Sequence to fold (299 residues):
Amino acid sequence: MTDHVSTHQAEEDARNEDILIYVNGRIVPKAQAVVSVYDSGFMLGDGVWEGIRLYNGRWTFLDEHIGRLFEAAKAIDLDIGLTPEQVISAVLETQKANGMVTDAHARLMLTRGVKTRPFQHPKLSQRGPTMVIIMEHSRQKLPRPIRLATVPHLRGLPMTQDPKLNSHSKLNCILACIAAEKAGADEALMLDVHGFVNTTNACNFFIVRKGAVWTSTGDYCMNGITRQKVIDLCHANDIPVFERNFSLVETYSADEAFLTGTFGAQTPVGSIDGRVIGSGQMGPMTERLRGLYKAMVGA
Ligand SMILES: Cc1ncc(COP(=O)(O)O)c(C=O)c1O
Fold:
């Protein structure tokens, strides 16, 4: 589709051609920032990651992101080999090397590292983890609200690949996104195993009905940091907010819908499965929450 839009769409910024990237303790030009073809992340998607954002000199909710990264690493039995403070230092060093002060986004990636042979067993990664930080100049640029389509790909049960893990392997979400694009939408709205509306392939999902804000129970989706901040902001500002099960029937007839994630904060949704949501433009509650969030993060 020619007018395809993504929640992770940013303004073109020529400076991103000359960024410096952190690779295992070295900060090198983009062209030299490479990992081995034997890396478990490349070979198997065996790793975890975080996306973080810089607004006016401050990495937003950095301790929470680093905490989630360490929890995910522990869950997949990956010893980072660094303390949280050392990981934060690596972020700050990369920021300094790039001279970035605001409107930057970083993808902090951690894999089980280089394998001795090209097979799955985790014991074949014997040289320690690989850590990479890609930091780009980044301001979200959305020409219009996002169009979603529901897809057959589900948010699964925790005993398969727990959807709470920010794993490198995102194939389920990628297949969902491809299916949504084939259906003429921008991104996928995914249901849980019971058929309730859960989340999108890359963000958390909210609706607004009669002045109240609804999101899924939190089962089967990423425990998004932005999601929690929106819930906290609702509580702090006397906006009724519910973490509950709801279906597509309630979703299509919502007054507003929006997505949350570190990259785009709160992103309006214009339509779902060809049904226009509200006016099809950003609604007043989404706008209000965006304002409150902006003030919270000092953007
Ligand atoms: C599948 C998915 N949902 C939601 C989010 C948003 O999480 P956060 O608000 O912590 O950026 C992410 C971001 O990593 C994600 O990958």
Remarks:
- The chain has seven helices and 15 strands.
